[in-house]
């Protein structure tokens, strides 16, 4: 039996938006991976708590976003891991807990530019592999690297910071967010 290949797309998801969902859906449906796990990163104490809501509330939004989707799931493993959280530790922990699955990291071309600054980046490439997707304004350089795969995923110029700013300005951004997430944000007065 073939090992299931899981793509790990990490982030603060503050909030999760349709750009995240569209990318994850593309990667799983077009066969780059079998599934994508949206992996929630813990709250960074250096970030402004007014803009970064609690881990649990972001997890609720992620669960809402993935509830009815095929090939996309929520992963909260980093919330129970020692901090600071390093990607290599997350991948190692997931591999130990799920020995029948193979994991591959998913990052944007913005992060690919600085990937050689990540902890154990060479081991990530050698043992897990990296899928790099295009981000507006960040052309992919260093494209022929062992363990790295470029995907020509549709580019969506949408960010969580854009969504937060729009909400703060009173805009209705429900079409930018997965079902239920906009109502949850408005009901709880997040990002105001």
Could you tell me the strand content as a percent range? 15-25%
Strand order of the largest sheet: 3-2-1-4-5-6
Number of strand elements: 6
Gyration radius, in Å = 16 Å
Structural class: alpha/beta
Task: Please write the string of helix (H) and strand (E) elements.
Answer: EHEHEHEHHEEHH
Kindly identify the CATH topology: Rossmann fold
Number of domains: 1
Helix content: 25-40%
Average pLDDT, to the nearest integer?
94
CATH homologous superfamily assignment: HUPs
> What kind of sheet is the major sheet?
6 strands, parallel
Q: Write down the oligomeric state.
A: single chain
**What is the tally of helical segments?**
7
Shape: globular
- In CATH, the architecture is 3-Layer(aba) Sandwich
Could you give the distance between the termini? 50 Å
> Unreliable runs, pLDDT <50, ≥5 residues?
none
**CATH class identity:** Alpha Beta
Your description of this structure?
- The chain is of the alpha/beta class and 192 residues long.
- It has helices spanning 18-29, 55-66, 87-97, 109-112, 121-128, 160-168, 181-187, and strands at residues 4-11, 35-40, 72-75, 101-108, 130-133, 148-150.
- The chain has one domain (4-187): HUPs (Rossmann fold, 3-Layer(aba) Sandwich), CATH 3.40.50.620.
- It contains 7 helices and 6 strands, in the order E-H-E-H-E-H-E-H-H-E-E-H-H.
- Strands 3-2-1-4-5-6 form a 6-stranded parallel β-sheet, sandwiched between helices.
- It is globular, with a radius of gyration of 16 Å.
- The termini are far apart.
- 31% of the residues are buried.
């Amino acid at each position: 039996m073939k090992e299931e290949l899981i793509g790990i797309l990490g982030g603060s998801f503050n909030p999760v938006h349709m750009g995240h969902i569209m990318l994850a859906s593309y990667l799983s449906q077009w066969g780059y991976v079998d599934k994508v796990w949206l992996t929630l990163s813990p709250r960074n104490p250096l970030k402004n708590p007014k803009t970064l809501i609690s881990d649990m509330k972001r997890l609720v939004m992620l669960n809402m976003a993935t509830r009815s989707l095929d090939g996309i799931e929520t992963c909260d493993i980093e919330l129970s891991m020692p901090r600071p959280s390093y990607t290599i530790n997350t991948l190692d922990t997931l591999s130990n807990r799920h020995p029948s699955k193979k994991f591959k990291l998913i990052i944007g071309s913005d992060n690919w530019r600085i990937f050689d600054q990540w902890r154990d980046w060479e081991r990530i490439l050698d043992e897990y592999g990296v899928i790099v997707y295009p981000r507006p304004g960040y052309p992919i350089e260093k494209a022929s690297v062992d363990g790295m795969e470029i995907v020509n995923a549709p580019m969506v110029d949408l960010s969580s910071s854009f969504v937060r700013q729009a909400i703060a300005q009173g805009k209705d951004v429900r079409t930018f967010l997965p079902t239920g997430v906009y109502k949850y944000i408005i009901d709880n007065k997040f990002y105001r």
